[in-house]
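hi! just following up on the protien thing from before. the input was this:
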Amino acid sequence: MEPNRPQSTQEQVPGMIPAWRLRGLLFENCNCQLVCPGHMSFRQLCTHDRCIGLWALSIEEGSSGDTDLAGIRAAILFDTPQHMIAGGWTTALLVDEGTSEVQLEALANILDGRAGGPWAVLARFVEHREEPRRVPIHLLDEGRKKRMWVEGMFDTSIEAIRGRDKDGVAVLGNLFNQIHAPTQVLALGSSRCTDGRISFETENTHALYSAFAWEGP
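and the predicted 3d structure came back as:
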């Protein structure tokens, strides 16, 4: 299940992969009903024959070696079988159009799992990766409401579910997930994506967000 693009010199020599860390916002939406069974465990069956959606991330602070990654926005589109642990996933990485070649390589190494850390676990299940692309990504974060979009390609919006106290939000707590924080805010989301290989449309389906903190190798 190797990525279908040539490795760089950094990738060929594991000892050259620098230490890295990323902090920021991560939110997701897929076509499952709330809550996505695959989010709880890849051993659970998702709602439909295919689990299709995206992870959206905004890096607030971070670096890979001497490469600054703060301020980058990115999205990972995914298409997986109903039984996610079976593998055979397809993913596509989209990053800000202003991301440099060095930043793109560093971030792709992290999100493809080749630089270690939590994404290395998810990488085991990916069979095909589309070539990373730079696109004009827009992000709107209004607390309980979050939106990411690329004109003519995809648009995803999520809104937190109101908690019992009416003023707070509903959360999942003390939950193990490779890429999300232990406490995650439950939400409903709607997305439309016409990305060619990975295209989907959702309406008031599984969504959530958390403050991620990743590091490696």
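The chain has one domain: 21-208.
Residues 109 and 116 are 9 Å apart (CA to CA).
cheers
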